[in-house]
Amino acid sequence: MGPDNVFAVILxxxxxxxxxxxxxxxxxxxxxxxxxxxxxxRPFRDLLAMRLRRVPPAALVNSLITATKAGLKINxxxxxxxxxxxxxxxxxxxxxxxxxxxxxxxxxxxxxAIDLAGRNVLEAVQMSVKPKVIKTPPxxxxxxxxxxxxxxxxxxxxxxxKKLVGGAGEDTVIARVGEGIVTTIGSSESxxxxxxxxxxxxxxxxxxxxxxxxxFEIVSIDIADVDIGINVGARLRKEQAEADTRVAxxxxxxxxxxxxxxxxxxxxxxxxxDAKVIEAESEIPLAMAEAFRSAKLxxxxxxxxxxxMADTDMRKAIAVSSNPEGGGSQDGVFSAI
Length: 337
What we know:
Elements: H1 3-25, H2 28-36, H3 43-52, H4 57-69, H5 76-84, H6 89-102, H7 108-116, H8 121-129, E1 132-135, E2 139-142, E3 147-159, H9 170-186, H10 191-196, H11 199-206, E4 216-231, H12 232-282, H13 284-293, H14 299-322
Helix pairs in contact: 4-6, 6-7, 6-8, 9-11
């Protein structure tokens, strides 16, 4: 093989490698598809540059073709910038098409911001066209008469495209609706008023402007179910009565213990006084003996005193026999004689 043939082979191999690299770096088929779709895509400045920046050309070009066919004018550079920022290009384009067909004003910049904020912009557009129904969990509240009322509501919301970035989500709407239902039931005079006209809850809650600061617009609030729970007022009154009873019992026990202590104290005092009386009576014979020795009391006077005491005892015995209930015993200074 001559030098010319070797050069030709090397040249052919280089040409083959170049063609393979060109077809890989510049997707000719994608460029032809875009050309026939009326989308202006430059092979080297767009397709090759996206390859070098590690951006899949098919994802962006196909989305651009879809937008162009839908009548939207979108710059390929904006799609690439959104992709490099971590956004979902296909979802943003589909959201723009849906918003355009529904007559909703949605610029590309706002749709890209909503997508980068972590919200599903396509679902938001669909929710703007077809409102979503959010069912709240059972909400318990107590009317003024103390009866518990359990209500379940269905909240119909429409997405507000302008408030999706920075607006509160569904959890905030449910919490606010629950708060409004609790307030409305709590201000009702009785549970019967709530059962008779549950739509008053919807009217009052809907008029509070609960969608302020949220990403949604509340279309309607419907009470799906109303049930009666326990009688909280009666239970509280029962518990209060039981507590009052326990307090009264404690106070009565304290008074009984105090009376018992006073009784024991009086018994001790009585015994002390009895001891003093016995001590005093034990001194009577000594005093009489001293009176005899000092001639202050004579024998005749002593006998007259004894006769008087005997006469008195007889009179008392007669009185006791005629009136058994009024009996008594003699307690005198001479009982020990």
